[in-house]
Amino acid sequence: MAEGFAKRLLPADWQIHSAGIRADGLNPIAVRVMAEIGFDISDQTSTVLDPKALQSSDLIVTLCGDARDHCPVTPARVQKQHWPLLDPAQATGSEAEVLDAFRTVRDAIKARVTELAESEVS
């Protein structure tokens, strides 16, 4: 979801890459809740962190504690931000409750990416 927002909301000259500590596949519920607000992420893929890409990045954003705690070491010049969000893929309950968890995280990610975009413009 973060990649989908970043590619549309951040400056066009930014290179956006999304990866995790595991490649768990594209979550169909994430695709569904993003489509609800007009973002098609169905062509995105789930990839594993590339240590070389981390070394050449300007900014690394981790979205949950697991990613923050297991992110490989990067040079001091690489800016890091941690957005402490719950992993909606871990949500349990009824279909409606799981959808609500995904929507809550989706909206939080959108707000964070919007803030990042605004801070880069000013």
UniProtKB/TrEMBL annotation:
Segments forming a coiled coil: none
Keyword DNA damage attached: no
Keyword Magnesium (UniProt): no
Domain of life: Bacteria
GO biological process: response to arsenic-containing substance
Residue ranges occupied by any Phosphotyrosine protein phosphatase I domain in the UniProt entry: 1-119
Keywords: Arsenical resistance
CDD domains: LMWP_ArsC (cd16345)
Protein known as: Arsenate reductase
Organism: Secundilactobacillus kimchicus JCM 15530
